[in-house]
Design goal:
heterodimer; A: 250 residues; alpha+beta; Jelly Rolls; 2 domains; 7-stranded antiparallel beta sheet; 6-stranded antiparallel beta sheet; 13 strands; 34% helix; B: 669 residues; mainly alpha; 4-stranded mixed beta sheet; two-stranded antiparallel sheet; globular
Chain lengths: 250, 669
């Protein structure tokens, strides 16, 4: 099948703009889980447990901003590959008067011992508030379960570990990390409000990269029209940004 | 708003100095009509000459007079530049695409430099090196000449004064603050490096060689990107983004960047200033083979530029002079006696002029009774070996690419050296082969310079701080980038067909990727540099340091609580307030920081002063200020301070808006 040069240019034009729109739209509008708190260093971890339906592990905590998922460290003591369902319930306070959100996951026994387990909350919880979470181990669970904890973590000052719904050691906490599901645009707006220097860095770098892309497009496509050149100039950084987000988040 | 006005004022002052260089270049090269070369070379020459003239005048005049005189002297050449640009038929001669690409890359590099500096100043990813440099600038903006070591205020810090003094000069003239002056100094240096190297290489070879050479000089780093996918983030988080953010310093310094100019602004911005001046010298040297230039004056100006470069970063001189003599020897072999003599004379005059500015070389030549001099030893037993500390990180846990622990030197062709900087060897080999095939000796100079820089640590050791000899390797990596850029341009410029053309393209592309990809891949890390804020009362520190600067210059402070030695100074402890006192407050902390600063004379007194406000020690150190973070005091420290207040030795002078900082005046009984 022969394709005329004009038809080829038209196809190239459509392709370039399609890639531009797709890459930027995906990078800016696809919801992603952004980390909004820290996970303790591996060297600061302790194993707490075994925990069970009776020895319920809980933790009081404050949220730096809205949270839609929480990672905790769980070790399933069975043979590698064994798993058990674990639930998470988030309450207004340690008295458990009001349930705020729920989640469930199925941690698996791995050679590394403690494994990161993600609990996607059915309802995002508010930022800048205090809550209490509990892990719910099913009564028919056959394996010993341990949870990851940390000690003397200044970032968890004011938080507290609970076992059997009673306060645990004052310097110990569950090891957890918060995530917030947001699009790139929403995250950027939030970042700009709390850390404008980060936002400026992103904007200026993007502008410069767009300029470089425009220069390269002008050189490579000098025999094409402005629409193709502009499309290519926008597509290259969009694809690079998309590749970066895929590497970082998927 | 006032900070914005600060930036505008200090930028205009800096621009006048840079523009004076354009006038000088326009006069030195009356036949040159290519505007990018006149502008690029001009800003580098202006940057260098301003610094040299300032440092020379400081030998004769008080600093309060020398600084305005420098800017008065800059006026006529700046005016000549404007006249020339209006009257001479200059041509731009670069296509729109290349112009947009080059200026955008320059913008990106400038953004990276400012991000690195800003994150170091405000977000604690700094080393004490930067604090000392900025403190020297802040003190030079207030003190009579010579400026004393802020950590050893009775002694001079006898090394690389020039960048700090220049920053102080633009602060004095513009009335701008330390931060804006430091940012503008760094940006001007980036501009000078890019402009000077581009113009020099473009004059000798082509615009493409100039663009690639200057770009890769500024972005060259060890090829750590090869191991980044294996990087042991050491984090249990499932989020790579979080891992990148939390280990940003390790990533930036070790796993991703290794060492290159990308990290200089936030660690030792004097290197940027020195290289900016050096680029002016390189540009002028590139004009010496042109019979239409004013060669004799050009030699003198180039020597002054090189002396300024060496006064800002001493490692530049040996590499530059060795390269000049090598070029002179090459020209002599070709029986180009006049040109050979020009290069040899340039090297000789620069070696003499380098003792004019106060600093490392003047102290080495004339000695000093009030400062610690640098010391070097001839150590040929390290021949063909590179220093390792802070330079070579494997980026993976592979034993094959690891530096054995406690190994301070490795062979040039050790497996990790080949992985990290093997691209430099390929670039040098390419240049040698290309120069023989094309009978074009001018590209050999670009191979000689990095080779010299990489070989020097194999012959010379720094006796004050062993690690400091690694500065030559850092310079060698940037010069390797320049060599890779020139080699890539030469390869791409080959007009061959078939396999040879494909091979040349692959080699050129490989050189560009290996030299610059690590830098490019680090661009997404830049925002993470701002992710931490270890100074919870930064605004109050700035309120307090504003107050300190409003007092008469010459105060000496005890920081309570605060660091008492170099290791503690280098930490973020005590909310980092010592960093702001000594730099933004232009106040000395007489603890004696390191071997440059006569620590052995201050430490025995600073410790008792710190532990008990010992009267004899306080008098000996002439401490007249106590800078206090009241909520960080221990019970004993609180009692000690209360006693001093009751005894009338300490009197509260200032309290910050939320009470997290206090300044006491201290008087002995």
């Amino acid at each position: 099948m022969n394709t005329s040069p004009a038809r080829f240019h038209a196809l190239a034009l459509v392709g370039v703009w399609f890639l531009s729109v797709l890459s930027w739209a995906t990078a800016l509008l696809l919801p992603l889980d952004w980390p909004v708190s820290s996970m303790p260093a591996r060297s600061a971890l302790i194993a707490i447990g075994p925990v069970s339906e009776f020895v319920v592990p809980g933790q009081s905590f404050g949220t730096p901003e809205a949270v839609s998922a929480i990672d905790v460290l769980i070790r399933v003591g069975g043979p590698f590959g064994a798993s058990t369902p674990v639930g998470m319930a988030v309450y207004e306070d340690v008295e458990r008067t009001s349930l705020v959100a729920r989640s469930a996951a199925e941690p698996v026994s791995v050679p590394a011992g403690l494994a990161v387990v993600r609990f996607d909350l059915d309802t995002p919880i508010d930022g800048n508030r205090r809550f209490y979470l509990e892990l719910e181990i099913p009564p028919d669970n056959p394996w010993p379960i341990f949870v990851g904890g940390t000690r003397d973590d200044p970032q968890r000052a004011g938080d507290r570990l609970f076992l059997e719904r009673r306060p645990g050691w004052s310097d110990q906490d569950l090891a957890y990390q918060f995530f917030r599901r947001q699009t790139g645009v929403e995250r950027f707006i939030h970042t700009a409000s709390v850390r404008p220097e980060m936002a400026w860095t992103i904007v200026l770098s993007l502008v410069a990269v767009l300029g470089m892309s425009a220069g390269l497009s002008l050189l490579a496509l000098r025999n094409h029209g402005w629409i193709t050149i502009t499309g290519s100039a926008v597509a290259l950084p969009g694809l690079a940004l998309l590749a970066l987000l895929v590497w970082l988040f998927l | 708003m006032s900070e914005f006005a600060d930036f505008i004022r200090v930028s205009l002052v800096e621009l006048m100095a840079l523009f004076a260089g354009v006038g000088i270049v326009a006069w030195l090269l009356p036949q040159e009509r290519r505007l990018p070369i006149v502008l690029g070379g001009g800003v580098a020459v202006g940057h260098a000459l301003s610094i040299f003239v300032l440092m020379a005048l400081l030998r004769l005049l008080p600093i309060g007079i020398a600084v305005p005189v420098v800017f008065l002297l800059a006026l006529p050449p700046a005016a000549f530049a404007i006249l020339s640009l209006r009257r001479r038929p200059y041509v731009w001669g670069i296509s729109f695409g290349w112009t947009v690409l080059a200026l955008s890359l320059l913008t990106l590099i400038s953004v990276g430099a400012v991000v690195d500096l800003a994150a170091s100043v405000w977000n604690g990813s700094t080393h004490e090196n930067l604090v000392v440099r900025m403190a020297m600038a802040a003190h030079a903006a207030e003190s009579p000449w010579p400026v004393m070591d802020p950590y050893s205020p009775d002694h001079q810090r006898l090394y690389r004064h020039a960048a700090q003094v220049w920053t102080a000069a633009i602060m004095r003239i513009s009335g701008a603050g330390l931060y804006s002056a430091s940012v503008v100094t760094v940006l001007a240096s980036v501009l000078a490096i890019a402009g000077g190297l581009f113009a020099a290489v473009a004059r000798l070879r082509s615009y493409l060689a100039g663009f690639l050479g200057a770009s890769l000089f500024l972005t060259a780093t060890p090829a750590n990107f090869l191991g980044v996918w294996k990087t042991p983030f050491g984090s249990l988080s499932t989020s790579k983004a979080y891992g990148l953010a939390t280990v940003k310093r390790e990533l930036a310094q070790g796993y991703v960047l290794g060492h290159g100019l990308a990290l200089a602004p936030g660690n030792d911005f004097t290197l940027m200033v020195g290289l900016g001046a050096g680029s002016g010298a390189v540009f002028l040297a590139s004009t010496l083979v042109d019979p239409t230039t004013r060669r004799r004056t050009g030699i003198l100006v180039a020597a002054m530029a090189l002396a300024a470069a060496a006064a800002a970063a001493e490692q530049i001189l040996p590499v530059a002079v060795a390269t000049l003599f090598a070029v002179a020897a090459g020209l002599a072999v070709w029986r180009l006696w006049s040109e050979a003599l020009s290069f040899a004379v340039l090297g000789l005059i620069a070696s003499v002029l380098v003792v004019v500015p106060e600093g490392t070389y003047a102290a080495l030549a004339f000695g000093s009774e009030i400062g610690q001099r640098a010391g070097f030893a001839f150590t040929p037993e390290y021949f063909l070996r590179l220093p390792t500390e802070y330079l070579f990180f494997a980026g993976s846990e592979s034993n094959f690419f690891a530096v054995p622990p406690e190994t301070f030197r490795i062979w040039l062709f050790e497996s990790i050296a080949i992985k990290e900087i093997g691209w430099i060897y390929v670039a040098l080999a390419s240049l040698v082969i290309l120069s023989r095939r094309r009978y074009s000796a001018s590209i050999l100079a670009f191979a000689v310079a990095p080779a010299v820089a990489l070989l020097i640590p194999g012959l010379v050791s720094d006796r004050l701080y062993e690690i400091n000899i690694a500065r030559f390797t850092v310079l060698g990596i940037s010069l390797g980038g320049l060599a890779a850029g020139v080699a890539a341009a030469e390869l791409l410029g080959k007009r061959k067909a078939g396999l040879a053309r494909v091979g040349a393209g692959v080699l050129a592309g490989g050189l560009i990727v290996f030299a610059g990809a690590t830098w490019m891949l680090a661009v997404p890390l830049w925002p993470a540099k701002f992710s931490e804020q270890p100074y919870p009362h930064l605004n109050e520190d700035l309120e307090a340091t504003d107050y300190l600067r409003s007092l008469d210059y010459g105060r000496r402070a005890l920081i309570l609580p605060g660091p008492t030695n170099k290791e503690e100074v280098n930490s973020d402890g005590w909310e980092g307030m010592h960093r702001f006192v000594i730099s933004f407050g232009a106040t000395a902390i007489p603890m004696g920081l390191d071997r440059w600063g006569a620590a052995h004379l201050y430490q025995p007194y600073y410790l008792p002063a710190y532990n008990s406000l010992d009267e004899a020690a306080m008098v000996q150190l002439r401490i007249d200020t106590i800078y206090v973070a009241p909520y960080l005091l221990t019970d004993d420290q609180e009692r000690m301070l209360e006693n001093a207040v009751v005894e009338g030795r300490a009197k509260l002078l200032f309290e910050s808006s939320a009470g997290n900082r206090q300044i006491y005046e201290y008087q002995s009984r």
